[in-house]
């Protein structure tokens, strides 16, 4: 490298997801509909929780923040992917690529902590109902939110600190529709084996560790409830089912990306599309249709909006 330690690559090129025009059209319609639906669904949850005083509780506070994060998840990579589908030259600037990586890992870290906080809230509500308001106080909710953002920021900044100054002098083709650390690092003009291992171990450890914490919390809740009554067990499972589904949808692709040694290109792209479009779309649907209180509150807020428009 002759002592060169700065990047000479000003942009990166994304490869086509498919070369068939019909599939491109189908992918464009599919991704556009899911993106708009995820924006509407998550925005509706945030609006409903904010506007309806009946939902001013720790569970819905955390749910509204999770929906805000899902808005970010769908907006970091999806709009550019939709915009690029019919373009022959799909490029992103070096700064744009770094920005995508930064927000992907910030949002991922925040969502992990929020899901753990929601599991803790369910544990308190089911196993310690008499102390629920005391333990899950507004101060505790704010603590979880601040901790989530701190974890997300530290996780992202620490990883980027090791890669942002890597030398990029030639290869600039990413076989994907967005930037992420594993592929980004491989394009550097230097030996990156240790750095790749560090990034994979970091993100993989956090993903698997958080998933295990959540699994343990569910097992503790189920065992604790089962000791008291079988009727309570079915109620607890009904309460937890939506949360467990969201956790599996979120952690499935993450664990795949960072622990699978050499995934096939097609499977990798499918999981990436699933993570970018389907998960943010399914999360509000799961929480809305599995929660009677949320459905009632949404109808109430919609009636208030209609009444306000008629008056004005």
Structure characterization notes:
- By secondary structure, this protein is mostly helical.
- The protein has helices at 21-51, 58-84, 94-127, 132-135, 138-163, 181-186, 193-228, 230-259, 265-289, 292-311; strands at 11-14, 90-93, 173-174.
- A three-stranded mixed beta sheet has the order 2-1-3.
- Helix 7 runs antiparallel to helix 8 (230-259).
- The relative contact order is 0.14.
Read across the widest sheet, the strand sequence of neighbours is 2-1-3
Helix-strand pattern: EHHEHHHEHHHHH
- Mean of residue pLDDT values: 83
Strand count, sense and closure of the main sheet?
3 strands, mixed
Overall form:
globular
Descriptors for this entry?
single chain; mainly alpha; 312 residues; disordered N terminus; globular
Report a brief summary of the structure.
With 312 residues, the protein is mainly alpha-helical.
Helices and strands, with pairings:
Elements (H helix, E strand, L loop, with lengths): L10 E4 L6 H31 L6 H27 L5 E4 H34 L4 H4 L2 H26 L9 E2 L6 H6 L6 H36 L1 H30 L5 H25 L2 H20 L1
Parallel strand pairs: 1-3
Antiparallel strand pairs: 1-2
Helix pairs in contact: 1-2, 1-9, 1-10, 2-3, 2-9, 3-5, 3-7, 3-8, 5-7, 7-8, 8-9
């Amino acid at each position: 490298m002759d002592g060169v330690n700065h990047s000479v690559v000003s942009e990166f090129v994304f490869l086509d997801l498919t070369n068939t025009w019909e599939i491109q059209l189908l992918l464009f319609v599919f991704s556009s509909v899911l993106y708009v639906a995820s924006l509407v669904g998550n925005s509706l949850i945030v609006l409903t929780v904010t506007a309806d005083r009946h939902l001013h509780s720790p569970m819905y506070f955390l749910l509204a923040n999770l929906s805000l994060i899902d808005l970010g998840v769908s907006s970091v990579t999806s709009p550019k992917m939709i915009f690029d589908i019919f373009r022959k030259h799909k490029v992103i600037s070096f700064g744009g690529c770094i920005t995508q990586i930064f927000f992907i890992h910030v949002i991922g870290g925040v969502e992990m902590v929020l899901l753990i906080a929601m599991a803790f809230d369910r544990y308190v509500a089911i196993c310690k109902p008499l102390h629920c308001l005391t333990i899950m106080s507004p101060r505790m909710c704010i603590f979880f939110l601040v901790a989530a953002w701190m974890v997300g920021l530290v996780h992202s900044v620490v990883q980027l600190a090791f890669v942002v100054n890597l030398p990029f002098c030639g290869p600039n083709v990413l076989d994907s529709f967005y930037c992420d650390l594993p592929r980004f690092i491989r394009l550097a003009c230097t030996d990156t084996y240790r750095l790749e291992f560090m990034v994979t171990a970091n993100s993989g450890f956090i993903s698997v560790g958080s998933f295990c914490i959540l699994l343990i919390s569910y097992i503790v809740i189920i065992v604790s409830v089962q000791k008291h009554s079988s009727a309570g067990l079915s109620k607890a499972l009904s309460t937890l089912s939506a949360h467990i589904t969201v956790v599996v949808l979120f952690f499935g692709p993450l664990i795949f990306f960072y622990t699978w040694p050499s995934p096939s290109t097609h499977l990798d792209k499918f999981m990436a599309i699933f993570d970018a479009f389907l998960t943010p779309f399914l999360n509000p649907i799961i929480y809305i249709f599995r929660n009677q209180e949320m459905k009632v509150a949404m109808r109430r807020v919609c009636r208030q909006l209609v009444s306000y428009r008629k008056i004005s």
